[in-house]
Amino acid sequence: RKMSSHQIGLSELLSLAKLNGKLPGEIALVGIPPVNLEMHVGLSDQAQALLPKAVAVATDIIQNWLKSGA
After folding, report:
1. What is the pTM of this model?
2. Which residues contact 17 (CB under 8 A, 6 or more apart)?
3. Quick one: 44 exposed, middle or buried, by C-beta within 10 A (0-12, 13-18, 19+)?
4. Per-residue pLDDT averaged across 26-33, rounded?
5. Of 35, 17, 16, whose CA–CA distance to 26 is shortest?
6. C-beta of residue 14 within 8 angstroms of C-beta of residue 23
7. Dihedral angle computed from the Cα positions of residues 51, 65, 17 and 9, in that order, rounded to the nearest 10 degrees
8. Boundaries of every domain in the chain
């Protein structure tokens, strides 16, 4: 049993959006591939270094959606 919203998966989130009639026509997923899957607090140095690029990519996607009226 999931105890918080932090434990919901992407497929569950999309299913819930569809069920509520809120599924968008287009979805973009921006991520940083993991280097290490061991549990720890915080971002790895590699992920921290890639974070600005991921934010820039996400910003570009959102700006393009806003321009196109998506």
Report:
1. 0.72
2. 23, 24
3. middle
4. 93
5. 17
6. yes
7. -20
8. 25-70
